[in-house]
Amino acid sequence: MVNIKFITEGREVTAAKGVNLRLRALEDGIDLYKFIGKMTNCAGYGQCGTCIVEVVEGMENLSSRTKTENHILRKKPDNYRLACQIVINGPVSIKTKP
């Protein structure tokens, strides 16, 4: 089991290793999307870029950036990721809607 701390929401959730961040966040009612993203998101296929999160701690516990992320986030800092592309393998602190 791993701990996921959502800084903006002031919440911490527990998840199994290997869980997808987007799916786990939505299961716990953590809102990843800004207003327009709620209507235009791609449902987790990595195509829209609306589920951007900032990894504050624990980057080493996440899967590597995908080619899709590298393309969509090419002008963003290295600690910005797409929640739908992240597999969590250890404790992490996340800031939603950076």
Structure characterization notes:
The chain has three helices and seven strands, in the order βββααβαβββ. With 98 residues, it is α+β, with helices and mostly antiparallel strands. The chain has a five-stranded mixed sheet with strand order 2-1-7-4-5, with no helix packed on it. The longest helix is centred in the N-terminal third of the chain and has 7 residues, at 21-27. The mean pLDDT is 93.
What key phrases describe this protein's structure?
98 residues; alpha+beta; five-stranded mixed sheet; two-stranded antiparallel ribbon; 3 helices; 19% helix; globular
**Which regions have little confidence, pLDDT < 50, spanning 5+ residues?**
none
What class would the helix/strand composition place it in?
A: alpha+beta
- Describe the largest sheet: 5 strands, mixed
- What's the overall average pLDDT, rounded? 93
User: Counting H and I runs of at least 4 residues, what is the number of helices?
Assistant: 3
Distance between the termini: 26 Å
Roughly how much helix do the residues carry, as a percent range? 10-25%
How many strand units?
7
- Across the major sheet, the strand order is 2-1-7-4-5
Please give the radius of gyration in angstroms.
12 Å
